Amino acid sequence: xxxxxxxxxxxxxxxxxxxxxxxxxxxxxxxxxxxxxxxxxxxxxxxxxxxxxxxxxxxxxxxxxxxxxxxxxxxxxxxxxxxxxxxxxxxxxxxxxxxxxxxxxxxxxxxxxxxxxxxxxxxxxxxxxxxxxxxxxxxxxxxxxxxxxxxxxxxx
Length: 156
Fold this sequence. Notes:
about 35% strand; 3 helices; two-stranded antiparallel ribbon; alpha+beta; single chain; elongated; six-stranded antiparallel beta sheet
């Protein structure tokens, strides 16, 4: 029998997985790609409609960000099922990731990298109108920043 009870943990687990080290795309983690694009466009907030598989604003949607978002959104029904719930229990699910582009600090282990604080919030509303919300906060830096010199260029 499916339940609404797992939706609280699903909101936590989906966001945690999306921003985690499991979300590596091409040459950086998803949050690194997103922070780079946010700094380039000066747009600091990505909103994802998980059920509709739509993310915006489009200025933030590089190929890496778009493909990663689509991948994790497709995984959402599986996460629900393995947690003991189903899509029938969910009327909406959204995620926002917002960086504070005004704040930066050197990364502790390598001061060449500047990290910025972020908030990732997931809101699931069930078929009865009850809201399940979880917020992840932290600091992140892009590993493949526009200013970072590639290792092979040192040999030229």
